[in-house]
Design a protein that fits this description.
Layout lengths: L2 H9 L7 E7 L2 E11 L2 E10 L3 E6 L5 E8 L1 E6 L3 E6 L2 E6 L2 E6 L5 E8 L1 H8 L4 H6 L1 H4 L7 E6 L2 H12 L5 H18 L3 H4 L10 H16 L7 H8 L3 H12 L3 H19 L4 H7 L5 H12 L3 H15 L1
Antiparallel strand pairs: 1-2, 2-3, 3-10, 4-9, 5-8, 5-10, 6-7, 6-9, 8-11
Helix pairs in contact: 5-6
Length: about 325
């Protein structure tokens, strides 16, 4: 069994019943259910019932993109750098963040549903979208996006109706479970068609529409040209942007410098090559833009804690244990 077959078996979707919960957090009652719709996508139905105003810190162990809809009430959260954000009843939202603070008001009951996606699932979805939608949501699929991001808008009647249909389907029986999955996938598809989605102002990300598009083009160019040498001056000439704006706004949008972003891309690609490609460390170093293999090995060790050869050996041993 090869690595891809092992991964496919691990990611295969077993049909499962919803996991229900009822918790007390601070002065609020939290109840709801979670269900894996398919590999990489989970549906969460949540009710937040506070006894009084409170602040509930929330952090996520795994990077995820959230698509959601407020069924009842009004939900406010506080995000680092972005401050307070509020989504009202009948509103959709898309978010990506490591942490937040949920803000509640006395008797301010809230009901919502949300889908959580692995970022690679989000990226594959965007690859099938129209160019304007993919560009608008690029930051939610970028592997190196660190700045918390949240956009929201009013749901169309069709999206609201699909949300109601999802709430009706329990997913506890085979026929019902398949109907629920179909409604969930239709809801996700419908979200990409929302008129309010494409009207989001790029100032949400801290710069103009033109600047945001230019910065995304820079990021995409770096990802597609890992093996090449890059300089701020060359990037500025290629994308017609001044160096001050490139440095300041790139970090504001992606949470890191241009070369910090490039470094992360290079080592992420090197990691995949060490796992899957029959290339020497020297060849991999050249493939990701390092002419000096010693510099590559030292940087890899700083990031992963082991040298590239040791990393490859450990991965191969893990594969043997899975067979």
């Amino acid at each position: 069994m090869n690595e891809q077959e092992i991964k496919n078996n691990r990611d295969a979707l077993p049909f499962e019943k919803p996991h229900n919960y009822d918790l007390k957090i601070a002065t609020a009652r939290l109840r709801g259910s979670a269900l894996r719709v398919r590999a990489g996508i989970r549906l969460h139905e949540v009710e937040l019932l506070p006894d009084s105003a409170c602040r509930i810190p929330v952090s996520y162990a795994h990077d995820a993109v959230w698509f959601g809809y407020i069924r009842r009430g009004e939900q406010s959260i506080h995000l680092p750098d972005l401050g307070r954000k509020t989504v009202g009843s009948g509103g959709w939202f898309i978010g990506r963040m490591d942490e937040m603070v949920v803000l509640t008001e006395k008797e301010g009951d809230v009901a919502l549903m949300a889908f959580s996606f692995c970022p690679h699932i989000m990226k594959s979805l965007l690859s099938m979208c129209a160019v304007d939608v993919a560009d608008a949501l690029h930051c939610f699929a970028c592997r190196n996006q660190q700045k918390p991001t949240l956009i929201h808008g009013d749901a169309s009647p069709r999206l609201q109706w699909l949300s109601d249909q999802i709430s009706i389907a329990t997913g506890s029986e085979p026929g019902n479970r398949l109907d629920l999955e179909a409604r969930c996938l239709e809801w996700i598809s419908e979200l990409f068609k929302q008129p309010s989605l494409l009207s989001i102002d790029a100032k949400e990300f801290g710069c103009s529409n033109y600047d945001v598009q230019t910065l995304r083009d820079v990021a995409r160019y770096l990802e597609e040209h890992l093996a090449e040498e890059h300089s701020l001056a060359d990037l500025c000439r290629r994308f017609f942007i001044n160096e001050f704006k490139l440095k300041r706004n790139f970090k504001a949008l992606f949470g890191k410098t241009v070369f910090g972003y490039l470094r992360d891309l290079r080592f992420q690609h090197a990691e995949q090559l060490l796992k899957t490609a029959d290339l020497s460390v020297l060849e991999i170093a050249n493939e990701v833009g390092y002419s000096n293999p010693s510099h590559f090995s030292r940087g890899f060790q700083e990031r992963y804690g082991v040298l590239p050869k040791a990393f490859r050996r450990m991965h191969q041993e893990q594969l043997k244990q899975l067979k």
